[in-house]
């Protein structure tokens, strides 16, 4: 009994632990070579890492044959990860970053008296927590041969701006303040234009180009925003901001009355239209819901793949070792002991596959998310912890089901037939 367990551990060590360890060391060695100024060269990395293992294994994503379960785990994690990333957009953008409930678009033809009357009405409205006059201009930023549409957001009151918009670093969650040191540029915008803090952003207005220094790069998921203080705007464009639009926040106890409050404000002749954050959130959610079926298909397919991989690996393993297993039965091993001897490897492979697949799934998820993004949207980058739990549990359930099938198969091994000479 002890000898067979030692032999099994040696088999795992030689066929699994050693190849994976060598692969990990080689991948770490190749990583610095593929880092270039223009970005990471994934194709070169694939070639360098895969060459020692041959073309066949390169095409199998460099995963040893016994680690097919890791690929299934990774695919399931990608499915759940995409769901997390897509669903995060609405929450992150309109709950954690932009906090106002609506935007009032003023009528350009309104008189000064009508605009003053609107301001007085907003001051008297007890259902509003606060409002902020802003200039929201749609300009363009040169991006190679094309132009990127950006919104220049200039608040009149910087204290209210802190309540309306949160500027923060996506990774560290460090919060920034809007200062006269320069503009705050959304992360996606800076990424597309290949800019960093301290660089100058070029914007076009009325066919003229202007430069503004980037003070901070802030988290943002929908649209391209450039936030400026009134002083930075004046220094950049040589003119004072025109605070034509207004953002407002409703008191918590009146949140369910936001649209009726807006309808009352719409009665003012100085108002052209009002856009509500809640309506925007509903529209985005409807658009993103169409991806749900795609994500479900991906998750189900990955789950079925996990089952097929586990079943085939175990079935082949039993067929290749049929004489060995029959010998164990002849020596007096019970069915449960034989099953334990064989399926212990399956359990170890499953655990190793879950761990390896989680790492591979994170890398694959990030690559896919960055690849499928459109210019105007940045998807979330994080996978929720519960998604890891779901994938691991599903994989374990399939492993248990396969073990049950394999136990029945092991019980049917005919000792006499299996031990007959193959010559």
Summed up:
The chain has helices spanning 2-30, 42-50, 54-58, 68-97, 112-124, 158-164, 187-192, 230-237, 258-266, 277-289, 292-320, 322-330, 335-372, 385-411, 415-418; strands at residues 35-36, 39-40, 102-106, 128-143, 146-155, 167-168, 175-176, 183-186, 200-205, 208-218, 225-227, 245-250, 271-276. With 423 residues, the protein is of the alpha+beta class. The two termini are 29 Å apart.
Q: What characteristic shape results from the CA principal axes? A: elongated
> How helical, in percent, are the residues?
55-70%
Please state the average pLDDT score: 81
Number of DSSP helices?
A: 15
Q: Could you tell me the strand content as a percent range? A: 15-25%
Count of beta strands: 13
Report the uncertain regions.
1-6, 54-66
* Sheet of most strands: 9 strands, mixed
Structural class: alpha+beta
Give the topology string: H per helix, E per strand: HEEHHHEHEEHEEEHEEEHEHEHHHHHH
Structural key phrases:
9-stranded mixed beta sheet; two-stranded antiparallel ribbon; disordered N terminus; 423 residues; 18% strand; 15 helices; alpha+beta; single chain
